[in-house]
Structures are given as C-alpha cells and as structure tokens.
C-alpha cells in the first residue's frame, strides 16, 4: 500500500527519521509471519511510552521483543539509543511522531487491511488489524481509531505540559536573576503628564465646584487629592504644601510652584564707590558677557543672561567694581534710604551685600555697625568690605537680642532676620521637605525678640532717622505679618510707606487672624510675579523712646515672679485696699493666722514710729504734717 498509494509520504517520513529501512514493511503478503503475536516483556524507561495493542488497550513503557527462534541475540543501537534485534529492524523502522501520525492517517483513509509496526522516539505504537474488515466491524474500527487518537493527544499534552512547566521555571529564574532597571526618560515623562492632567482637571472642577463636581463627593476630597498629587509631582512635604495652599489661590499656587523649579536670573550690583554702571557694563560686554539693566527701579543693578567668562572671577570683580547680589536683596536697603553722616546698625549683616550697599549710598560717610552672631560668616563680610573699598564700617560679633544693652542710639536699623527660607526654594530645594511647624514657630519667636531689640536700639529723637526696616526671605505669615503686628503692640512705632513702587500688599487678615490695617503698607515679592526671590519688607517709624506702660507692667511682673518664692502673700493686699473697711475686717477674720501675721508685719513696717494706733484714720493726717515740717526749713 505504501509503494502504490503513498510513496511520497513514505519517502518524506524516512528522511525525517534519518533512517533507511531495510525492508518494505507491510508492502506484500509475505509479512504474515510477523503478524502472529510475539512474546514481549516490558522494560522500564524514563520517558512516558504509549503502546496500543490490537484490543485497544493503552499501556506505558517500551517493549522489547524476545530473541528470535534462532537464538540470535545480536542487538543494534539506532540513532535514538534504542536497542533492537535484527528481526525487529526488518519488521519496522523508527519515525518521528508527526511523520507517524501522517502515515497512520493515510493508511486509515485508504482502508488497508494490513498495518505494519511503527516505532517512534518516545513511544511504540503497535497496531494489528484483523484481515478483511467487514462493514459490520466499522464501529469497532472507529472505536479503535478514537482510542488511538486519544492516546496520541494525551502524549502530546503531557509533553506540552512539561514544556510549559520548564518555560515557567526558566521565566521565574530570569525574573529572580534580572536586576532593577531605571525607567527611561520617556516613561518618566509619561508619568509626569498623567500627574499634570489630573492636577489640571481637579483644578477645573474646584474653580466651578457646584457645576462640575461629582455627586456624592465633597470639596475636601478634591483638595486632598490635589494636595497629594502636587506633593508627589513637585516633591513638597504635606505640611509646606498645606501652608502654601492657605496663602495662594489655586491657579497662582501652580505658578509659584513652577517658578521655584527654575533658578532666578543672575544679577550684580555696581559699586559706585569705584566705577559707574555704564563703564562696568561696557567692560563686561567686551569680555563676552550678555547683560541688561536690571529695571527702572534700580540705578545700579545689572542682569546677566550668559557669559563666556566666570562672573565671579573677572578682573572687575576682583577689583571690587561690582558685587554678586540678588535683586531682592537690593530692596531693603532702598527702603531704609540711609543718609550721609548717620549712625546705622546692620543687625544681621552676613555676607555683607546689604552693608556694602549702605556704605555706597552713604558715600563712605558716617558709621555703619555690621553685626552678626556667627563669627564664621563674618569672614566673608570682612573680605567684601575690603574688596569693595568700604571704610566707614565696624564689624562686631554679638547676639542681636542683647544689642540695645551693648550699644544704642542709632539713626536707622536694618534687620534681615533669620528665617525658614521658603522664599528661596529655587536656591535651596531642601526647604521643600525639611521644614515643619516647629521650625516656623522657632524662627517666629526669634524674630519677635530681634525686632524688639532693633526698635529699642533706634533713637526716636534723631533729626534725620528713627526708622527700622524689617525683612525676611520667607513668605510665611507667621514670620512676617504676625511679627510686625506683635511689634506694633509692644512698642511705640508705626508703619510707614517703604518707598517701593511695586510689590504686593501684606495681609491684614489671614484665616482666623486679624492684623493692624496699616499692614497694607508692607510689601511682598514673589518669584512668579516679580522674577526674584520671595521677600517681605516692612518699614517702621519710632515716635517715642518710652516703652508702653502695659509692656512695662508685664516685664516687671515677669521679673518679680522669677525671684519671689511666695508671690501670693505680696499680691493679696493690693486689690483689697479699694474695698471698704468692714469688708476688710470680715476677710481678716476668715484669713488663716500665718497670713494675718504677715499682713500685720507689713503694716507695721509702713507705720511711722510715733504712731500709737494701726488704724488708717490716724495715719492719714500724719503724712501731710511731715511734709509741712520738711517744707518750712527750706522756706526759712
């Protein structure tokens, strides 16, 4: 049948198995000898081998035919390592499973009555079909075919399952051995875009919350999501972002956060003690520096766009012709407006940019006391004073809170107080995460102490001065308006105009706090509106050197409470003097004995020596008689 019906398929099968059969198995009627069932014994093997007998039973294992009648026990090993006798080699050939299936299907279609034995690599399929199948036996034939197909499918499924398990194990090993890889720039950009889209969509809903909000959702939930997204995208702490959301409206807050991600432009201040701004600009342009005037509000500032030489190492810089200084640092000195031949105190002067600007405006006249509590930072102050040619400055290292006791009577005082630095996040990004409520309150407490000391150091009777300028590089209300309002309550000062034409007004009300209405004259500067570091400036005018009476009473009470061991015994008689004598007698009877003894001892000390009665009626006429006797000898 294979020679006549399917010679091409047989050739293809022989090539796939890489075997050359010696005989044409099942091609003639001479194969009736080996059609008789031979004795076979089961040999265990590692692989799962399937055997189909003539009865349709499926068995696992490999079959090895017994020796021939001649007793020849010579075995030959094929390409697959299987052993077989010479008779077995004549009986069949080894084929791959796909080829074997093709051959079987072709034989079954042609309806051949004789089927040879086909051996494959993983299993042995042994078909014995009874000769001369009739139509009645068709059902049995179909059953046998189904059993054979199921057996082949079962073997293929087992192999596929083993392959899948091996692939899974291999994948797990790869996952374990595989190291973490950083995301690409494209992946990071995609994540950033998702954050931005969600932030914008959330803000649109919050701006028109009644119309666009989702049903069942509150405004608090939207704000919480927005705060979390902005904290993750801009890398801020939850505390600082909550503070900023209280200060700025939502659209302005986004602009502020974006502005902090970009550095401020480099600015320099011309030292008019040695050169003019026009000459300095021309010299720097010749060296390859691209610059422009800072603005109409400044006569000495220049903004640097780019430079082919380092700005901090040019010959002009080393000669002291200019100072590297931020634009916002020029504003406090302009608000102070120092005059010639004045005595001025710079309470926190390091690194010396404002001190040298004051000396420049005073044209090296008068006296400037440059003070700082950090001795290490004073080195840069001394260096800048020498480089810029300042000759009217004295450097001191004192605590600003003790300064009125050290030296006072100044015409003007500049206090650039230490702060949390929330206005210079572009210079110091660590402020985003390392500040909390305790840091803000600690700075505010120190600033309150310093501003009272600065006010006490000024002479209100100065002909040209009596001004104090308070400034910080922070935008927190606790460090700015709160401190200024505290100073207005504790000292005889008032707020005056800063003299600056631009800048936003300070807060007169913030959340549940209400400040003095004159705080409108203070100025706030932001990076997203003025393209400079965040800054706050307030200018005071002192109209009296006297400390308010309420403040004196509080200070005396604090000082008296500190050394006194029993303050109750001293404070008891004071409110009782205003009451009637009858009430005094009644209360004296109710007082315990030790308290009465102390009270009588105090009255005895106040009583004159010649007085016989302790009653107040006898004491009143005696006091004026003494004064009369003292006055008479003076007149005589």
Could you explain how this protein is built, in words?
With 636 residues, this protein is of the alpha+beta class. Among the domains are: 185-261, no CATH class; 265-324, Sun protein, domain 3 (Alpha-Beta Plaits), CATH 3.30.70; 327-542, Rossmann fold, CATH 3.40.50. The strands form seven sheets. Strands 14, 15, 16, 17, 18, 19, 20, 23 and 24 form a nine-stranded mixed sheet that branches. It has a four-stranded antiparallel sheet with strand order 11-12-10-13, covered by helices on one side. Strand 21 (509-510) and strand 22 (513-514) form a beta hairpin. Residues 1-6, 9-28, 40-92, 121-135, 557-598 and 607-636 have low confidence and may be disordered.
In whole angstroms, the N-to-C terminal distance is: 168 Å
State the low-pLDDT regions, or none. 1-6, 9-28, 40-92, 121-135, 557-598, 607-636
Biggest sheet details: 9 strands, mixed
How many beta strands in the DSSP annotation?
24
Helix content: 40-55%
What integer value in Å does the Rg equal? 52 Å
What class do helices, strands and sheet pairing give? alpha+beta
- Shape label: elongated
Q: Report the β-strand fraction as a percent range.
A: 5-15%
CATH-defined fold name of the domain at 327-542: Rossmann fold
What's the CATH H-level superfamily name of the domain at 327-542? Answer: Vaccinia Virus protein VP39
Number of helices: 25
Q: pLDDT average, as an integer?
A: 74
CATH classification class of the domain at 327-542? Alpha Beta
- Quickly give the CATH architecture of the domain at 327-542: 3-Layer(aba) Sandwich
Biased composition (Basic and acidic residues): 1-13, 580-589
GO molecular function, one term: RNA binding
Pfam families: Methyltr_RsmB-F (PF01189), RsmF-B_ferredox (PF22458)
Biased composition (Acidic residues): 56-78, 135-149
């Amino acid at each position: 049948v294979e020679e006549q019906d399917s010679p091409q398929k047989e050739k293809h099968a022989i090539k796939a198995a890489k075997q050359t059969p010696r005989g044409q198995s099942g091609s003639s009627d001479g194969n009736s000898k080996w059609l008789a069932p031979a004795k076979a014994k089961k040999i265990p093997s590692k692989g799962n081998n399937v055997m189909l007998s003539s009865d349709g039973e499926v068995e696992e294992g490999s079959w090895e035919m017994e020796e021939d009648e001649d007793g020849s026990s010579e075995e030959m090993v094929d390409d697959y390592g299987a052993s077989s006798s010479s008779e077995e080699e004549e009986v069949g050939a080894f084929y791959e499973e796909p080829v074997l299936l093709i051959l079987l299907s072709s034989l079954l279609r042609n309806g051949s009555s004789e089927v040879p034995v086909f051996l494959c690599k993983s299993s042995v399929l042994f078909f014995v079909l009874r000769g001369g199948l009739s139509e009645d036996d068709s059902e049995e034939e179909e059953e046998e075919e189904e059993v054979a197909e199921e057996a082949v499918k079962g073997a293929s499924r087992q192999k596929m399952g083993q392959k899948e398990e091996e692939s899974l194990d291999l994948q797990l090993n790869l996952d374990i051995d595989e190291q973490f890889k950083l995301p690409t720039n494209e992946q990071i950009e995609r994540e950033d875009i998702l954050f931005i889209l969600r932030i914008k969509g959330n803000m649109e809903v919050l701006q028109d919350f009644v119309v666009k909000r989702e049903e069942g959702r509150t405004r608090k939930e939207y704000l919480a999501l927005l705060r979390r997204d902005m904290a993750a995208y801009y890398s801020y702490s939850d505390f600082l972002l909550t503070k900023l959301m209280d200060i700025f409206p939502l659209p302005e807050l986004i602009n502020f956060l974006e502005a902090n991600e970009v550095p401020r432009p480099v600015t320099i201040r011309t030292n008019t003690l040695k050169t003019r701004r026009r000459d300095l600009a021309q010299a720097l342009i010749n060296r390859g520096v691209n610059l422009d005037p800072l603005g109409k509000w400044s006569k000495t500032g220049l903004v640097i766009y780019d430079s082919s030489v380092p700005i901090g190492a040019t010959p002009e810089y080393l000669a002291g012709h200019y100072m590297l200084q931020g634009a916002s640092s020029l504003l406090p000195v302009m608000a102070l407006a120092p005059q010639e031949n004045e005595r001025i105190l710079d309470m926190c002067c390091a690194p010396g940019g404002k001190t040298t600007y004051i000396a420049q405006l005073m044209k090296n006249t008068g006296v400037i006391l440059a003070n700082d509590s950090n001795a290490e930072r004073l080195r840069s102050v001394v260096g800048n004073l020498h480089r810029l040619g300042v000759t009217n400055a004295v450097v001191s290292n004192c605590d600003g809170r003790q300064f009125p006791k050290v030296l006072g009577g100044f015409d003007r005082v500049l206090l650039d107080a230490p702060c949390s630095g929330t206005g210079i996040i572009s210079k110091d990004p660590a402020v985003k995460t390392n500040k909390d409520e305790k840091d803000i309150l600690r700075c505010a407490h120190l600033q309150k102490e310093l501003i009272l000391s600065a006010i006490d150091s000024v002479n209100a009777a100065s002909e040209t001065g009596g001004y104090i300028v308070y400034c910080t590089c922070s935008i927190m209300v606790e460090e700015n308006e709160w401190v200024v309002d505290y100073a207005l309550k504790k000292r005889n000062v008032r707020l005056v105009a800063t003299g600056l034409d631009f800048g936003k007004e300070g807060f007169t009300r913030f959340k549940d706090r209400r400040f003095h209405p004159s705080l409108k004259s203070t100025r706030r500067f932001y990076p997203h509106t003025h393209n400079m570091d965040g800054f706050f400036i307030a200018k005071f005018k002192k109209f009296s050197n006297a400390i308010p009476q309420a403040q004196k009473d509080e200070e005396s009470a604090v000082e008296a409470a500190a050394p006194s061991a029993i303050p109750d015994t001293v404070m008891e008689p004071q409110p009782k003097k205003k009451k009637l004598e009858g009430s005094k007698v009644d209360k004296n009877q109710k007082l315990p004995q030790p308290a009465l003894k102390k009270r009588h001892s105090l009255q005895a000390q106040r009583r004159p020596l010649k007085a016989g009665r302790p009653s107040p009626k006898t004491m009143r006429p005696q006091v004026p008689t003494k004064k009369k006797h003292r006055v008479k000898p003076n007149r005589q």
